[in-house]
């Protein structure tokens, strides 16, 4: 009798806790109006595509457990979709956003409401357009605070500062893309980098709008750094100040201190900064980490960390003292980029899958399509070719008649095939001198099927075709553990012995070391169609992508939910 009463009391307490959790969860209802707006940068005004007239777009602040209903109203002249980068979207691929993968795009004059719930996630993520190059200006921060009463695994400062790194073109980015698609050559590089939408002091007509972050002496703040740039990995530093890394891609890390971070497109990194220097003005700056033998934007964006008691000049030439500039690594400093990445560790023991059901080996890299008429204006790549990119020699082509997820759900044939190769069709010296006969990939729309709850390992192997390069690979619908990496060709006999299966970092986007490999593991516990692609948008457009089809499990709670009624039509 006593034990049954104790059980009833525990059940009642658990029920109360559950209802308290439901009561604390909020529903955030927002409208995102996609609209052109005049934006002036670098002395010139462009009609830029924005959300609610803001560039960057609005910051979403929510808590773990909250739900969102965001109606996207398209008043621009381009089709568009919005991706909630890093949100797992459990059983709900319909809210993920990549056009022609989980939905057809929202046409001009149409709307779609993204409805989703934050489930066991907290930290810094972001949202962006997932339609061609519209994300050059259509992006914003998505900050997930812990549930009320849940602590951080570190002493949380009272103040957060979102720092969104971006790229700016001094023309319509869609025209830049259109030109590259026509010629087959590489797209023109950006004309500036930005911090929270502003280029900073080192660019023309920009000094008066440089972003300033006031700070009190002795104060500690958290910088939520997001690389929203289209095509470039970046080094980021704050002059004379150390940065304590506490989170990457919405996953806490064992804290460590550094003077510089390297952050790839799509990635987020949270750092703590303490104002412990002489009162003054200090530049925070970002510039390219360029691992490829390719043109890049070699400019530097700045903002100013400004102590509230910073002294001013006296006498003649009175005014503010010039900010101190940070020491940034060289553009091609792979050693610094690698050293930073190798220091990342999950904040506690990680639940890494140990027994692997699907062991996949993916070569990732560039390629060239041969032209029958090399002198054609449509063949302006190297030696009269067109640029391409691929995974396992498969260059991904987006469907147009339907999205992959809709075709999969409806059983519609002819949209995609499920024969994506688990290994390269030909083995070769991936990082050596590759025969030109292996440079041309095959185009297609292929997916790879995974059983529900399969334990998956993917080794992503960079190649030296065209050029070795750090490719920031992003997997939709999942977080994964980065269990190992190295330079050269992956050796399946010896390299797994060096895997970190105790506290590997958890991420949603990871760069392949240039001329090297990286291994990731995850459990396929989220049914649906999930895009995996390089987050360098030039490479994505060239075909550096594939799709995982994760099958339903048993019952409703392990199956994709029904599509919403307002899902856009193709």
UniProtKB/TrEMBL annotation:
It is found in: Secreted, Extracellular space, Apoplast. GO terms for cellular component: apoplast. It comes from the Eukaryota. The keyword Oxidoreductase applies. Keywords: Apoplast, Copper, Glycoprotein, Lignin degradation, Metal-binding, Oxidoreductase, Repeat, Secreted, Signal. Its EC number is 1.10.3.2. Residues 1-25 form the signal peptide. Binds 4 Cu cations per monomer. InterPro entries: Cu-oxidase-like_N (IPR011707), Cu-oxidase_2nd (IPR001117), Cu-oxidase_C (IPR011706), Cu-oxidase_fam (IPR045087), Cu_oxidase_CS (IPR033138), Cu_oxidase_Cu_BS (IPR002355), Cupredoxin (IPR008972), CuRO_1_LCC (IPR034288). Residues 35-147, 160-309, 419-553 form the Plastocyanin-like domain. PROSITE patterns: MULTICOPPER_OXIDASE1 (PS00079), MULTICOPPER_OXIDASE2 (PS00080). The keyword Repeat applies. It catalyses: 4 hydroquinone + O2 = 4 benzosemiquinone + 2 H2O. Its cofactor is Cu cation. One of its GO terms (biological process) is lignin catabolic process. Its main location: secreted. GO terms for molecular function: copper ion binding; hydroquinone:oxygen oxidoreductase activity. Belongs to the multicopper oxidase family. Lignin degradation and detoxification of lignin-derived products. This is Laccase.
């Amino acid at each position: 009798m006593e034990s049954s009463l104790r059980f009833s009391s525990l059940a009642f307490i658990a029920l109360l806790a559950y209802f308290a959790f439901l009561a604390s969860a909020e529903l955030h209802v927002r409208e995102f109006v996609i609209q052109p707006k005049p934006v002036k940068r670098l002395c010139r005004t462009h009609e830029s595509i924005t959300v609610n007239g803001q560039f960057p777009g609005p910051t979403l602040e929510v808590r773990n457990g909250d739900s969102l209903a965001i109606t996207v109203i398209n008043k621009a002249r381009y089709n568009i979709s919005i991706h909630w980068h890093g949100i797992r979207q459990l059983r709900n691929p319909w809210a993920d956003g990549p056009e022609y993968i989980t939905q057809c795009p929202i046409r001009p004059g149409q709307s779609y409401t993204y409805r989703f719930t934050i489930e066991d996630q907290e930290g810094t993520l972001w949202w962006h357009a997932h339609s061609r190059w519209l994300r050059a200006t259509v992006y914003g921060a998505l900050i997930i605070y812990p549930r009320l009463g849940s602590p951080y695994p570190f002493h949380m400062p009272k103040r957060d500062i979102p720092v969104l790194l971006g790229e700016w073109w001094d023309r319509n980015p869609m025209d830049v893309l259109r030109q590259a698609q026509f010629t087959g050559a590489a797209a023109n590089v950006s004309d500036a980098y930005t911090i929270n939408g502003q280029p900073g002091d080192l660019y023309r007509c920009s000094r008066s709008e440089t972003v300033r972050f006031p700070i009190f002496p002795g104060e500690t703040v958290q910088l939520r750094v997001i690389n929203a740039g289209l095509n470039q990995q970046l080094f980021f530093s704050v002059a004379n100040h150390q940065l304590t890394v506490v989170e990457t891609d919405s996953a806490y890390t064992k804290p460590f201190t550094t003077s510089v971070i390297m952050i790839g497109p799509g990635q987020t990194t949270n750092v703590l900064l303490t104002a412990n220097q002489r009162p003054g003005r200090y530049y925070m700056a970002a510039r390219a980490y360029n691992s490829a033998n390719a043109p890049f934007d070699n400019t530097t964006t700045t903002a100013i960390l400004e102590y509230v008691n910073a002294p001013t000049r006296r006498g003649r030439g009175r005014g503010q003292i010039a900010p101190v500039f940070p020491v940034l690594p060289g553009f091609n400093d792979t050693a610094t980029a690698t050293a930073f990445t190798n220091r990342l560790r999950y904040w506690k023991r990680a639940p890494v899958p140990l027994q692997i059901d699907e062991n996949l080996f993916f070569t990732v890299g560039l390629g060239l399509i041969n032209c029958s008429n090399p002198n054609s204006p449509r063949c302006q790549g190297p030696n009269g070719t067109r640029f391409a990119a691929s995974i396992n020699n498969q260059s991904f082509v987006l469907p147009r008649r339907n999205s992959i997820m809709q075709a999969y759900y409806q059983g519609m044939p002819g949209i995609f095939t499920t024969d994506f190769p688990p290994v390269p069709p030909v083995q070769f010296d991936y990082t050596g001198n590759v025969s030109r006969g292996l440079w041309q990939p095959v185009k297609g729309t292929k997916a790879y099927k995974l059983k529900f709850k399969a334990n998956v390992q993917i080794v992503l192997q960079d190649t030296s075709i065209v050029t070795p390069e750090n490719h920031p690979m992003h997997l939709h619908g999942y977080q994964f553990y980065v269990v190992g990496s190295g330079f050269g060709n992956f050796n399946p006999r010896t390299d797994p012995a060096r895997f970190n299966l105790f506290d590997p970092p958890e991420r949603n986007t990871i760069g392949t070391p240039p001329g090297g490999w990286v291994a990731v593991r995850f459990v396929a516990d989220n049914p649906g169609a999930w895009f995996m692609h390089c987050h360098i948008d030039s490479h994505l457009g060239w075909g550096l992508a594939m799709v995982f089809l994760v099958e339903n499990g048993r019952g409703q709670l392990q199956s994709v939910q029904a599509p919403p009624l307002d899902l856009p039509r193709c």
